[in-house]
Structures are given as structure tokens and as C-alpha cells.
Amino acid sequence: MFALPNLTRFSLKATMFRQTPFRLTLMFITVYSFVAVLIFAYIYIASSAETKAVSDAQVKSRIDYLAEVYREQGEAAVLETLSEEDITEWFFVKIAYRGDGDILAENRRATTEVSPQVFDHIREKARIVGANERPFQINYRLTDPSGKRKSYAYRGQVLTLKPGLYLYVGMDTSWSEKGFDMGFKALWGGGVLVIVLGLFAGMIINNEVSRSVQGLMQVFDLVKEGDLKARAKLRNSGDEFDALAERVNETLDRMEKTMGNLKYAGDAIAHDLRTPLSRLRSKLEVSLYDVEKDPSQAPEVIERALAETDQLLRTFQTVFSISRLQAAGQAPDQKLFDASALAEDMRELFEILAEDKGLEFTAEIEPGVKAYGNRDFLAQAMANLLDNAIKYTQTGGITLRLRHNSRREIEFSVTDTGQGVPEADRARITQRFVRLENSRSLPGVGLGLSMVEAVAVAHKGRLSIDEGPGVYGDQGPGLRTALVLPPVG
Amino acid sequence: MTKVLIVEDDVEAALTMQKGLSEQGFDSVVTHDGEAGLKALRDGEFDVVVLDRMMPGLDGVSMLEIARSEGIDVPVLFLSALGELEDRVYGLKAGADDYLVKPYALVELVARLEALLRRKDTGAVETTLRVGDLEMNLITRVVKRGTSEIDLQPREFQLLEFLMRHVGQSVTRTMLLEKVWAYHFDPQTNVIDVHISRLRAKLDKGFDRPMLHTVRGEGYQLKP
User: Fold this and answer.
1) Which UniProt keywords apply (chain B) (predicted)?
2) Sign of dihedral through CA atoms A67, A70, A76, A77?
3) Is B29 helix (H, G, I), strand (E, B) or coil?
4) CB contact under 8 A, B185 and A349
5) A321 contacts B86? CB cut-off 8 A
6) Under DSSP, is residue A336 helix (H, G, I), strand (E, B) or coil?
């Protein structure tokens, strides 16, 4: 059985986070964000290392140059060189200062951009890092008098020219920071957009899917409660949900039909068995009188009752088999098998039965005929046909034939020279428990041909009943019964 | 005395069976579910088991599969209300040696149990079967009664072989159709009787003492 959630609990809002399409959307968004962050982080790390290396080299070349000027031309020359303006030096801040903080010289960029507090910051950082040691990063934000915020970033180094005289050269790296800032903003903005749109799309898809699923759930709930007539509505959208609903409907159709068949079979069995049971009952009742009159008859009476019960059980078994075949729609365990060999077996089994009764038995079996089916059921059916033919034929003979007919169907036929069956009765004799007037005296309960027909139908074949070869002595016209199976392959 | 284990959840049916079997000289122990059956099988020595298929808890098929996996190789006859072919095949695949459909006749049950017990005895490969003055060579396929050779059709040979292997036991018509012809359906008519009478004619003709007997209400029996 299916475990179905209760429909009342299946409300959209309460369980949206548990529903598959929405969960898939969330999963997608999470994965997307993670990957985007990862890619950006990689780019950031890789390019900021590159930026650092480039600016460090640039700063170093200027520091080296200024140190050389100092060595060769002295203090005044350094201060002059430092404040020289050149288009290539636009990105650099250069400051010469004393240990007490007095600025001796600076270039224009330093004048316009480096306020006293920034300069203090530079000196403090230089002291911590140590002059001549290694480059360091300065980041700061300022609000100018007009209220505009501006952020600065320098990568620079301090050189000690002599004790108490220092030189700072820094390169503006805010362009790179700005680039990353924009990248970050774009990522966040885009990310938020993706998440919002994704959630929105997820909700729409979820709504759509759960509507389809809810329809199916309703159908299943109804079926669970016993309404086998419930069917899912098709939206004719041709999508998977429609295909699924169609499949569900087909399954239900089939189930309903099978249930109907079973119910019918059950009713039929109950009905069919009432007759022989009441017959048995009245016989036992009569037997009781017999035994009361003559107790020595008891064993014989019981034996008769037993035989009668056996017959009843056999009848029951046959009715059961017929019903089961009809309900299943097809015979179980079907295989490709040698039909000619089966026909040979039947010939061997029944030939002497016919001969015993003084009937001539002829068999025409096409060799190598293959059929597809359940060998035991088909054997039973063939046996019934042969048995009938022998039972209802007094003189003449029986012909057993196995062949492919003109439509390549496999035809197993039995022809006898008995009295035959009037055309008007032929349709009737395959019904259960139908026995014709002149056969009442012979053993049997009227299930043989019903069984054959059920077996034929369960193999997608048929039972055909036709007139026999014609008048034979005072008998005739005889009967030809044939079990016809569809061609193989 | 032959000891039978009956595993059957229907108490009344089990007791009737026990009574019936004891009339036929079988000593039996009854258990009413698969677990108890399995326990009895592990503890006791049984010659043959009659096992119901559908029982609450451990069903017959599962019980048998467990027993077989533990190396318990006692012959088992499945008894079931499920008589259709696929059920039969399924039961035999699970390791049963024979399968009888409910409702059954006691004589049929006894005949089949005896057949199972007999099967257990025959260890060595035989080449010749002998019953009284009847002799069947399984290699040359020559059958002799006394000194005179009996000419048999292949199926008659198989039929006689089956009867000889079950000498002294009653075999039913259904058993013969199943074991000799390999068909699993109810023969309904006297088709088997006719074959037997053919065989009987060949076997007993010219001899004062008949060997192939009809047992009323049961079937047939070959006696030395």
C-alpha cells in the first residue's frame, strides 16, 4: 500500500519548505551562491596578490632611486627630487620627514591627499613595521569638508636616510580596491536578485507541481477509502504529470475491472455450488432413511456420500480454475512449448480409451508445431475435448488433428461421429453447468467446455464448435470442436 | 513405526489427519504454526513432514526454506488450499518433495507419504527392479514375468516402473498422471483406468495369480 499524507495537512503554505520543487530551488540557489563566492574569492586572492607584487616593485624602484640620489648628491638633492612632478609619478605619494614628524618635502599628491592624521598613521605604521624592512598597507576613509566620503589605499615603504631623517614612498592602490568593491557589489546585488527571483520561480513551480500532485493525492485518498471509480483529471498539457495521471487512471481502470471480475466470479461460484450442494444434502437425507431401515448398509451409504463429495470438490476446483483464469485474463506461466509433443501425449492417453469403446481413433499431427502458453492448462483443455468426443460418440470414430490453419493459427481439433449439437445450442454449451437434454444420463457436470473456453480465452485464442463430418450410421452429423491459439511470434 | 510431523494451523483438520494417519499405522506429532514446526523439526527425528502452506506467523514456505538451509533434508509434502499451478511450482521450488491440494483424500495423502518414504530408502542406483516373479531391466528395458518376456509400449514401461518402485502401496490416478505422464490436472474420466487395464492384460495374462490390483476407492496396487 501507499503511505499517503493526510490531505488536510497538505496545505501549500505550511509545507512549502518540505515540497520537492521548492527544496530543489533552494538547493540550486545555495549551490549557485557557493560557487559564485568561491569564484570571486579566487579572483580576489589571485589578483590582489598580483597587485601587491606590482606595487611593491614600483615602490622599491623609487626607494632605491632616492637612496642613490641621497648617497651621491646629499640631502638637499633628495628633497628636490622627491617633490619633482612627473606624469609617471602620479600614483605615488612621497614624503620626507624628520623623526619628530616635521615634513621636509612632499610631492603634490601627498600635499593634496595626505592629511596630518593620515601622516601620523603612516609614521605609526612605519615605526611598528620598521623602516627599510618591508612594504605595508595603509587603508583609510575620510569625509571631506563637503561631506563626501572617500577611501584611500596605499601600499608603501619607509626608508631611513640617516637617523632622524625618513622617506616614505607609497603607491595608490585604491583603483584595485575600487574594482573589487564594484565586483563585490555586483556579486551581492546579482546574488540577491538570483535568490529573490529563484525563490519566486520556485514558489511558482512548487504551486504548479503541488496542484498536479494534489489532484493525484485526492484520487488516491478516495481509492483508499474504497471508491474505485475515482479518477485523476487530465489537463491535456501533455507533461509528465498528465502522463502520470493517465497511468494512474489506467491502473485504476484495470483494478476496477479485475475487482468486478472477482466479485462476479465469487457470486458465480456461490451460485454454481448451491445446486450440487443441495443435491448432496438431499441424497444424504435419503441415505439416512436407508441406514435407519438397514444399518448394515451404512458403509456403502457413506462411501457413496464420499464419492459424491469428491465429485463436488472436483467441480468446485474446476469452477475455481475457470474463475481464476477469467479473472486473471491470461494464463499464468506461459512458455514456448512443443504443441506436437503435447498432441502426441494426448493421442497416447486417449487412443486406448476410444479403442476400448470400439471407436476408431485417428490422429493427424503436424510435426514441430510450437505454441506459446501454459502446457498444463492446454493439456487439460485438449483432454476435455477428447473426453467429450469419446463420451458422446457411440459408433464410428474420433479424429484428433493438430495443424497450422490458413491464418497460421495453431488449431487443435477433435472431430467425432456422434450425434452432434444443434446449431442453436452451440453457444450455450460453453456456459457453466449447461448440459443438453440427451446428455443428462452420462457422467459429468457441464464444466468441460466452459473450462476449454476459459483456457482458450486466457491464451488469446478461441474455442470453435462446428458440425462434424455428417451422418454416420444412425448417428450424425457429429461435432468438431477446435481449440485455436494465436500464431507464435 | 513411521513418524510424521504435521504442521497445520487448523486444529481440527490437524487432529483429523492425525487420527486418519494413525489408522494407517503412522505415528504423528502435531504443531500448529511454523515456529513450533521448525522447533520440532530441529529437535526430533521425523521420517516425513506434512506441511501446511498458509499459516499465521512463519508460513510453510519460509519454514521449509529455513529448515532446508539448516541442512534438514527430511522429505516434505506440502498441503495447501492453493492448488493452482504456479502455487505448486513455487512450493516445490522452496524445497518440498511433493504437493497435495486441499481438500485431499486420506488415501491420496497416505499414498504420497509412502511414496516419499520409499524414495528416501533407495540409495544405490538400481539397474534391475524385481517384484515377485516380475523383473524389469532398466538398462535393456526388457520386462519378464517368470520366463516369458512382456512387450511394453514406452509409456506402459514407465507406468510399470512406477508401480514396481511403489510395490505394496496404493497409488492414485492423480499420482499416476502426475508422475508418469507429468500432467497436473484432474483426469476426471477413466482414462488412467484404461491404461492400467491394458497393462494388466499384458502383465497378468496367462498367470493364475494377478499382480496388478484395483483398490476400491483408492487406486491401484502392485503386489508380488
Assistant:
1) DNA-binding, Phosphoprotein
2) negative
3) strand
4) no
5) no
6) strand
Q: Would you state the cell numbers that stand for residue A378, as one nine-digit string?
A: 492446454
Of A349, A352, A376, the CB nearest to B85: A376
Residue A323, classified by CB atoms within 10 Å of its CB into exposed (0-12), middle (13-18) or buried (19+), is buried
Q: Which three cell numbers stand for residue A407?
A: 491464418
Tally the residues of chain A. Answer: 489
List of residues 6+ apart from B206 with CB closer than 8 A: B148
Residues in chain B: 224
Cell of B91: 512450493
Cα atoms in the Cβ-side hemisphere of radius 13 Å centred on A275 = 12
With an 8 Å Cβ cutoff, is A387 touching chain B?
yes
DSSP letter for each residue of A128-176: HH-TTT--EEEEEEEE-TTS-EEEEEEEEEEEEEETTEEEEEEEE-HHH
Nearest Cα neighbor of A466 from A432, A428, A426 is A426
pLDDT higher than 50, residue A9: no
For residue B151, the tally of other CB atoms under 10 A from its CB is: 9
CA pair distance A240, A242, nearest whole angstrom: 5
Question: Taking residues B116-127, what's their average pLDDT?
Answer: 69
Q: How far is CA A197 from CA A25, A35, A194, A201, A203, in A?
A: 10, 18, 5, 6, 10
Mapped onto helix, strand or coil, the DSSP state of residue A401 is strand
- Taking the Cβ of residue A356 and every Cβ of chain B, the question of whether any pair is shorter than 8 Å is answered with yes
Least confident of A218-222, A366-370, A398-402: A218-222
Confidence bin at A443 (pLDDT 50/70/90) = low
Burial A190-229 (b: 16+ CB within 10 A, else e): ebeeebeebeeebeebbeebbebbebbbebbbbbeeeeee
What ipTM describes this predicted complex?
0.74
Please name the residue that has the C-alpha cell 491440494.
B101
* CA A348 distance to own-chain centroid: 52
Taking 50 as the threshold, does the pLDDT of residue A1 lie above it? no
The label of the residue with cell 551581492 reads: A188
**How many whole angstroms separate alpha carbon A280 and alpha carbon A286?**
10
- What is the set of domains in chain B, with CATH numbers? 2-121 (3.40.50.2300), 128-222 (1.10.10.10)
A192: left (phi over 0), alpha (psi -120 to 50) or beta: alpha
Residues 6+ apart with CB under 8 A from A119: A95, A97, A101, A103
Interface test with B, best of A312, A352, A386 (most B CBs within 10 A): A352
Stated pTM of the model: 0.58
Q: Is residue A392 within 8 angstroms of chain B, CB to CB? A: no
Instruction: Find the angle CA(A357)-CA(A362)-CA(A364) to the nearest 5 degrees.
Output: 155
Cell of A447: 464444466
Q: What domains does chain A contain, in order, with CATH numbers? A: 1-225 (no CATH), 263-327 (1.10.287), 332-485 (3.30.565.10)
d(CA A463, CA A452): 7
- Give the distance from CA A485 to its chain's centroid: 36
Confidence tier at A265 by pLDDT (50, 70, 90): low
Name the 3-class secondary structure at A207. helix
Angle at A215 between CA A211 and CA A220, to 5 degrees: 140
Query: Cell digits for A208?
Result: 504548479
More confident: A32 or A2: A32
Separation CA A469–CA A271 (nearest Å): 37
Distance of CA B57 to the CA centre of its chain: 28
Dig out the grid coordinates for B37 from the structure: 514446526
Average pLDDT, chain B: 87
Strand ordering across the sheet containing B26-31: B26-31, B2-7, B48-52, B76-80, B98-101
Q: Which amino acid is at A185?
A: K
**Cβ separation of B195 and A349 shorter than 8 Å?**
yes
